Amino acid sequence: MSKPETTTLRGELPGVKLAGSTGATAEVYTHGAHLASWKTADGVEQLFVSSDVVFKPPKAIRGGVPICFPQFSDFGPLGQHGFARNETWEVTARTPTSVQMTLRSTPASKEKWPHDFVCVYEVMLGAGNHLKTTMSVTNAGIEPMTFTTALHTYFRCDDALAAKVTGLKGASYLDSLDGRVRREEIGEFVAFAEEVDRIYLSTSDALAVEDVAGSRSIRITKRNLPDAVVWNPWIEKSKATGDLGDDDYKKFVCVEAAAIETPVTLPAGERWECEQVLECVKHASPVPAIDDAAPSKVEAEEAR
Ligand SMILES: O=P(O)(O)OC[C@H]1O[C@H](O)[C@H](O)[C@@H](O)[C@@H]1O
């Protein structure tokens, strides 16, 4: 079978552009198997990419959906978020509306992480305003292997300061801004009025980003990714992050479907898989307020 062709995308990097019959499109780079654009049929971009993005491998693309594998953040001895987002993946299959990319262990990867693995990531434009991604990891070695992972999705918002993340009420979280102390989410939603960096544990598989100012919701349905990181860098971290524009914190929130608290342990020869489906839902007018009687801590502070 001939190797599926790539085209030249932003930053002169190779990748694949998907196009659905409805007019929806997506761009997936071979660098990091990075999904860096998803436009719904109306031409509206649903993912955020930094205004100061740098397309220079091995640096990860700032925005879209970096794949954190085989380590999330500093949960292990590897560099931040592992190495999958910094590597060149191979296009192993494609149709007009889907692409499959594969990353295999190499002698160089085994110096960092001593395991034989095959990681397969697939992006599919679905019917309606859906986008489906699946990822599988096969342990091709003879010893068990353990990893953490996240689909680090940057959701574009018309106004992140008015956005809400729903579906997390009652979940415990580790507050990465406070020594990863464990807390409980008591709010009906997570709002953004300061820096937020939390690892919500064993959450519902149905979450949503409510872009109130944009009159739209993105529904997130995840499978086999029990945790969810919620992140907005706020003012100082945006300024301090070289490839983020100073005001970019107003333009996105990250909700990262993840397996972190309980790392995945995969026996030799076995395969693990996960899935994330995104659906954009438009609202005729701003989405109705969600039980403002029970605001989260940051909302309560904002109201003062
Ligand atoms: O700058 P990066 O390595 O891409 O990480 C960006 C962010 O990723 C996650 O959301 C972490 O929880 C944050 O602590 C981190 O700042």
UniProtKB/TrEMBL annotation:
<comment type="similarity">
    <text>Belongs to the glucose-6-phosphate 1-epimerase family.</text>
</comment>
<dbReference type="InterPro" id="IPR011013">
    <property type="entry name" value="Gal_mutarotase_sf_dom"/>
</dbReference>
<dbReference type="InterPro" id="IPR008183">
    <property type="entry name" value="Aldose_1/G6P_1-epimerase"/>
</dbReference>
<keyword id="KW-0413">Isomerase</keyword>
<dbReference type="InterPro" id="IPR025532">
    <property type="entry name" value="G6P_1-epimerase"/>
</dbReference>
<dbReference type="GO" id="GO:0030246">
    <property type="term" value="F:carbohydrate binding"/>
</dbReference>
<dbReference type="GO" id="GO:0047938">
    <property type="term" value="F:glucose-6-phosphate 1-epimerase activity"/>
</dbReference>
<feature type="active site">
    <location>
        <position position="152"/>
    </location>
</feature>
<feature type="binding site">
    <location>
        <position position="85"/>
    </location>
    <ligand>
        <name>substrate</name>
    </ligand>
</feature>
<dbReference type="InterPro" id="IPR014718">
    <property type="entry name" value="GH-type_carb-bd"/>
</dbReference>
<dbReference type="GO" id="GO:0005975">
    <property type="term" value="P:carbohydrate metabolic process"/>
</dbReference>
<protein>
    <recommendedName>
        <fullName>glucose-6-phosphate 1-epimerase</fullName>
        <ecNumber>5.1.3.15</ecNumber>
    </recommendedName>
</protein>
<dbReference type="Pfam" id="PF01263">
    <property type="entry name" value="Aldose_epim"/>
</dbReference>
<feature type="active site">
    <location>
        <position position="256"/>
    </location>
</feature>
<dbReference type="GO" id="GO:0005737">
    <property type="term" value="C:cytoplasm"/>
</dbReference>
<feature type="binding site">
    <location>
        <position position="80"/>
    </location>
    <ligand>
        <name>substrate</name>
    </ligand>
</feature>
<feature type="binding site">
    <location>
        <position position="62"/>
    </location>
    <ligand>
        <name>substrate</name>
    </ligand>
</feature>
